[in-house]
Structures are given as C-alpha cells and as structure tokens.
Amino acid sequence: ETGVTQTPRHLVMGMTNKKSLKCEQHLGHNAMYWYKQSAKKPLELMFVYNFKEQTENNSVPSRFSPECPNSSHLFLHLHTLQPEDSALYLCASSQDWAKNEKLFFGSGTQLSVL
Amino acid sequence: DQQVKQNSPSLSVQEGRISILNCDYTNSMFDYFLWYKKYPAEGPTFLISISSIKDKNEDGRFTVFLNKSAKHLSLHIVPSQPGDSAVYFCAASRRGGSNYKLTFGKGTLLTVNP
C-alpha cells in the first residue's frame, strides 16, 4: 500500500463519545499534519508533527488531541465534540517541515457530530 | 481575514477550451504559490507551483501566472478535458520565514463539459 491512508472514511458520533481518527503514510516522510475542511471554508491547519515532535498547534480546542507515536502514524483523538466540529478531517505528510509545501493528502474522514 | 481568496466558487467550460482559475492574496510576504486539485472522496493533490522570482511556470496543459504587483495568480488549463473537473485550491506560503505554513483559498469547482 502506498501514499497516505486515513481511517475511518466516515464517522458519526454523539457529543459525549470518544473516537479516534487514524492516519498512516508509506512515503518515508518525516512530517505529518492534520487539516480541517469545513463547508465553504478554506483548509485550516490544526497540528504539525516533525520527526514525531509537535511543532504547531494552531489554537485548536483541547477536545482535539493529536498523537504521533512514530513518523508513519498520526492519530486525532476526539472527545466531547460539538456539532460545529462536523467537517472533513484531512491528514497529510511531507518530506519534512521545511518542505511542507508539497503535501501528500489522505482521502479524509468525513465527521458528523450529532 | 482571508489572506488567500478564490472569488469564483465555480467555473464551467467546454471541453477543448481554456479554463482560467483565479486567486488573489493580501499578504505581500508570500513568496511561493501552489495549486492543488481535489476530486470528490479524495484528498487534494499537488498540481503546480511558482516562486515569486518567476511570473510564469508551465507543466504540460497547466500554466500558472503570477502578477506580484496585483497580488494575483491564475491557473490556465489548455485544452480543458472532462477529467479536469475537480475543485482547485490556491495556496501560498512565505519561504523566507521560519514557518512555511501553507494558507489555502476556499477552492473553485471546475466543471468541464464534454
């Protein structure tokens, strides 16, 4: 398997649920990202990990908790989300943080919070 | 405040004709610009980029033009093909700084009719 793989593709959760999004990249990259795409809004950067270390937290609420156990895997743990958190969550990777312009994206997780 | 703007949410062109997608930016510190393409149910994929030291970059049917004085760039697709139908995102970054974070526009949906 190649590229950036995200699971699940779709997720429906209640506001009291805890769920996790998973991302795996098979490109040998060292930087991984979480982006959020809400309807009619630009892609918003949430978190950046470079060599497993978090280098960017773009003022994201604490109900979103990222985890990067190694350079190939990235998780986004979700807890007590709000309906306005419903969006497409995209994982991406790049060779490293200094070459983050050419991103390789996964297909995303379409999240609906009820 | 949106720093990268794609004012046309959608564009429809006939197969074989030219498609022109426009993008404006407000931050004069941006010095690198990219276009990404996104098909439904897939993540965005890198298409073409241009540095601020150039005013044109060409790759096959795709050409990006940069007008720094107007803070405007455009993507030309010639000839347009039905397979080009997708959402196109403009993005910009500031390479000279310590943070290469990409700023995206909202996207333009291109439909190429057979």
Would you kindly provide a written description of the structure presented here, covering whatever features stand out?
The complex is a heterodimer of chains A (114) and B (114). Chain A is mainly beta and 114 residues long. Chain A is 0% helix and 56% strand. Chain A contains no helices and eleven strands. In chain A, strands 2, 4, 5, 6, 9, 10 and 11 form a seven-stranded mixed beta sheet that branches. In chain A, strands 1-3-8-7 form a four-stranded antiparallel beta sheet, with no helix packed on it. The termini of chain A are far apart. By secondary structure, chain B is mainly β. Chain B has no helices and eleven strands. In chain B, the strands form two sheets. In chain B, strands 2, 4, 5, 9, 10 and 11 form a six-stranded mixed beta sheet that branches. In chain B, strands 1-3-8-7-6 form a five-stranded antiparallel beta sheet, with no helix packed on it. At the A-B interface, strand 10 of A face strand 4, strand 5, strand 9 and strand 10 of B.
Task: Summarize this structure as a short list of keywords or feature phrases.
heterodimer; A: 114 residues; 4-stranded antiparallel beta sheet; 56% strand; B: 114 residues; mainly beta; 6-stranded mixed beta sheet; 5-stranded antiparallel beta sheet; 0% helix
Secondary-structure map:
The complex is a heterodimer of chains A (114) and B (114).
Chain A: E1 4-7, E2 10-13, E3 18-25, E4 31-37, E5 44-50, E6 53-57, E7 64-70, E8 73-79, E9 87-94, E10 104-105, E11 109-113
Parallel strand pairs in A: 2-11
Antiparallel strand pairs in A: 1-3, 3-8, 4-5, 4-9, 5-6, 7-8, 9-10, 9-11
Chain B: E1 4-5, E2 10-14, E3 19-25, E4 32-38, E5 45-51, E6 56-59, E7 62-67, E8 72-77, E9 86-93, E10 103-104, E11 108-113
Parallel strand pairs in B: 2-11
Antiparallel strand pairs in B: 1-3, 3-8, 4-5, 4-9, 6-7, 7-8, 9-10, 9-11
